[in-house]
Every structure is written in structure tokens, then in C-alpha cells.
């Protein structure tokens, strides 16, 4: 089968399409024919060795497809079932082994591309808005990179909970998308003083929460945009890692809370995985949440997909089509 392999860590150029043996499902595992694989920022961290993996490895974590074989002891799924997953290593491939207890059934109402792109970012946006800082009606929150994969989902989920979104983006096109997703205010963070603008838009109060997946370049403004006892959810580092900080800064910012949450800890149990996946899928089926696919790439253009994502040229969700 064809798969995108990383033999040495580095830039997008290390992504190579290779012919390798099809993996075999072990006990409790499914072999799935991949209809589409989700492209995520974490894939770039794996490729660059920010989160080191033993070399060589087939890259990618997310996707959707049809079960073609089951390992011993699998009772929940059968050959032919449509499934989606957010944490099966080796998903940029024609076939991938998915642990059955990490797979979720795809409802008939969802097409393969939507299912492939929904879970990793969808469940992250779900835990950020429902668990990390549960948005209340009337809250104003700041969402950075609001036209990105995560940003569009966060903006829609905050709005659906009755919150008001102040969005940051870098271009006109991205501003239009953020507004379409529900953002009430949009700041060009490449040009403006974000914290100052946020104060002006909140009568000097600041926001209840900041969802920051950009990291190094936005962190200071995020901290300075919070209201007293607000929550800064630093969930990623698209612009680079945030340097170590003195806890006293949290006091000066107004007894604020800083957290650095990750999806795996929010879907660690089967019950949590099923709950978050179900709520994401139901919101999509009901039309209250849209996964906007901003780019579809053939498997041998995985390099281009990474270049575009890291080059800030993309909007919404990116998919690879084997
Ligand atoms: P996006 O689609 O949001 O792409 C990244 C966006 O970040 C860009 O389009 C760009 O938007 C903005 N950006 C600002 N500065 C930079 C920079 N220097 N380099 C690149 N991009 C920049 O990506 P994703 O939705 O896939 O991921 C967003 C973040 O969410 C990532 O940090 C990722 O790691 C994190 N994440 C965390 C999870 C968790 O469990 N904690 C799970 C899923 C994602 P603009 O042009 O508008 O500035």
C-alpha cells in the first residue's frame, strides 16, 4: 500500500510517499481502508521532531474510512462499518490499523470527508468550550487564528453557547470566514495592538477566556486581554513555543488562570471519547456546526499540505485523499 513516511525529521520535504506492506490488525484492532485522512498541526510537530517518534514512521493521526478486517476479540465493529478516529498512528496511508476502543461509528448523515475532518479539531473545540472554560451565555471570549481549522470550530461553538467572539486573523479572506462562523468582532493581529483593541471592545473589562493555539506571537496579548480571574487556554503553538514565565505575571494580570490542555487527556476514557464525538457529530448533523474543508490533497501532495498549513495559506480543515 502507499503511505507517507518520515525517515528523517525536518521540513515538509522529508514527507515521502512509499510503498510498504499493509499493516495487520492485532487483537482488539481494526484494519481500515482510509477514505480521507485529516491534516493537523500536530503532524508538523511530529515531522519536525517537536514530539519525537521512533524513525521511520508513517505520519498522521486522524481519518475516516471503512473497516476491511478485524483482529481477535473485536466485537464492537464489523467488516464494512464506517468509522472515524483521531489518534491512530499512520493515518496518511491507504490503510491504517485503528484500535477498536479508539474508533467511533460514523452516522449515515455524515459523508467521509466531513467525518475524517471532524474529530481531532472538533473534540478539541468541544473540550475547550465545554470543559476548560465552559462558555456561558453573554461571555465575551477571544479566539486567535479564527479562520483556521480550530478557529472556525471554536467560533461556532462559542457562538452556539451564547458567547460573543472577538476573533483575530491575518487577511481579508480570513476575516470574512471568521464573521461567517459567527465572530462579532475581528482584529487584524498582524497590525493591531490586540490587548488594547480587546479592552476597547469590552468597556475596559477584558474577556472571560482566550483560546490561543498560536502561542509565542500571541501569548502576551492573550494574557493582557483577560478580565479579572479570566482563563487563558493555551492549546497550541503554531507560531512557536511560549517561553517559561514567572507565575507572578498571572497575579498582575488579575489572578488569571493559565492552562495548557491537550485532547488525549479529554478523551482518555471510552465514555469521554463517545460523549465528545457524539456531540460533535450531532451538531454537524443538526447543521449547528460546519466543518469547512479548505483543502483536499492527494496523498503524494502531503508535502504541499504541510507547506500551506505552516505558511498560513490555509483556512478551515485540510484533508489528504489516498
Ligand atoms: P490552523 O488551521 O489554525 O493553522 C494555523 C493558523 O495559525 C494559521 O492559518 C495562521 O492564521 C495562524 N498563525 C499565526 N502565526 C502563525 C505562524 N507563525 N505560523 C503558522 N501559523 C500561524 O491550524 P490547526 O487548526 O490545525 O491548529 C491550530 C492550533 O491548534 C495548533 O497550534 C495546534 O497544535 C493546536 N491544536 C491543539 C490541540 C490540543 O489538543 N491541544 C488539538 C488540535 C489542535 P492567520 O493567518 O489568521 O494568522
From TrEMBL:
<protein>
    <submittedName>
        <fullName>Quinone oxidoreductase</fullName>
    </submittedName>
</protein>
<dbReference type="InterPro" id="IPR013149">
    <property type="entry name" value="ADH-like_C"/>
</dbReference>
<dbReference type="GO" id="GO:0070402">
    <property type="term" value="F:NADPH binding"/>
</dbReference>
<dbReference type="InterPro" id="IPR036291">
    <property type="entry name" value="NAD(P)-bd_dom_sf"/>
</dbReference>
<dbReference type="GO" id="GO:0005829">
    <property type="term" value="C:cytosol"/>
</dbReference>
<dbReference type="InterPro" id="IPR020843">
    <property type="entry name" value="ER"/>
</dbReference>
<dbReference type="InterPro" id="IPR011032">
    <property type="entry name" value="GroES-like_sf"/>
</dbReference>
<feature type="domain" description="Enoyl reductase (ER)">
    <location>
        <begin position="10"/>
        <end position="320"/>
    </location>
</feature>
<keyword id="KW-0521">NADP</keyword>
<keyword id="KW-0560">Oxidoreductase</keyword>
<dbReference type="Pfam" id="PF00107">
    <property type="entry name" value="ADH_zinc_N"/>
</dbReference>
<dbReference type="InterPro" id="IPR013154">
    <property type="entry name" value="ADH-like_N"/>
</dbReference>
<dbReference type="GO" id="GO:0035925">
    <property type="term" value="F:mRNA 3'-UTR AU-rich region binding"/>
</dbReference>
<dbReference type="Pfam" id="PF08240">
    <property type="entry name" value="ADH_N"/>
</dbReference>
<dbReference type="InterPro" id="IPR047618">
    <property type="entry name" value="QOR-like"/>
</dbReference>
<dbReference type="GO" id="GO:0003960">
    <property type="term" value="F:quinone reductase (NADPH) activity"/>
</dbReference>
Amino acid at each position: 500500500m502507499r503511505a507517507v513516511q518520515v525517515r528523517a525529521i525536518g521540513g515538509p520535504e522529508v514527507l515521502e510517499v512509499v510503498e510498504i506492506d499493509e499493516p495487520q490488525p492485532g487483537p482488539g484492532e481494526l484494519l481500515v481502508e482510509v477514505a480521507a485522512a485529516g491534516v493537523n498541526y500536530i503532524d508538523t510537530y511530529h515531522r519536525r521532531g517537536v514530539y519525537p517518534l521512533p524513525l521511520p514512521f508513517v505520519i498522521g493521526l486522524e481519518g475516516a474510512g471503512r473497516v476491511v478486517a478485524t483482529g481477535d476479540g473485536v466485537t464492537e465493529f464489523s467488516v464494512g462499518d464506517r468509522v472515524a478516529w483521531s489518534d491512530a498512528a499512520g493515518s496518511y496511508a491507504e490503510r491504517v490499523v485503528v484500535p477498536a476502543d479508539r474508533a467511533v461509528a460514523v452516522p449515515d448523515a455524515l459523508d467521509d470527508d466531513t467525518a475524517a475532518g471532524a474529530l481531532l479539531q472538533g473534540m478539541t473545540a468541544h473540550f475547550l468550550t465545554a470543559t476548560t472554560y465552559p462558555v456561558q451565555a453573554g461571555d465575551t471570549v477571544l479566539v486567535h487564528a479564527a479562520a483556521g481549522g480550530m478557529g472556525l470550530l471554536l467560533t461556532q461553538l462559542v457562538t452556539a453557547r451564547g458567547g460573543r467572539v472577538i476573533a483575530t486573523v491575518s487577511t481579508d479572506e480570513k476575516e470574512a470566514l471568521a464573521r461567517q462562523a459567527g465572530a462579532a468582532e475581528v482584529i487584524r493581529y498582524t497590525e493591531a495592538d490586540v490587548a488594547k483593541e480587546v479592552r476597547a471592545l469590552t468597556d475596559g473589562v477584558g474577556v472571560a477566556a482566550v483560546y490561543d493555539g498560536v502561542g509565542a506571537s500571541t501569548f502576551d496579548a492573550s494574557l493582557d486581554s483577560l478580565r479579572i480571574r479570566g482563563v487563558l487556554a493555551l492549546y497550541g503553538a503554531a507560531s512557536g513555543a511560549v517561553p517559561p514565565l514567572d507565575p507572578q505575571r498571572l497575579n498582575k494580570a488579575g489572578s488569571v488562570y493559565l492552562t495548557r490542555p491537550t485532547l488525549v487527556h479529554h478523551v482518555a476514557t471510552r465514555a469521554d471519547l463517545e460523549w465528545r464525538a457524539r456531540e460533535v457529530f450531532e451538531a454537524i448533523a443538526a447543521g449547528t456546526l460546519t466543518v469547512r474543508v479548505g483543502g483536499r490533497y492527494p496523498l503524494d501532495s502531503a508535502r504541499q499540505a504541510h507547506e500551506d498549513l505552516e505558511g498560513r495559506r490555509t483556512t478551515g480543515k485540510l484533508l489528504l485523499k489516498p
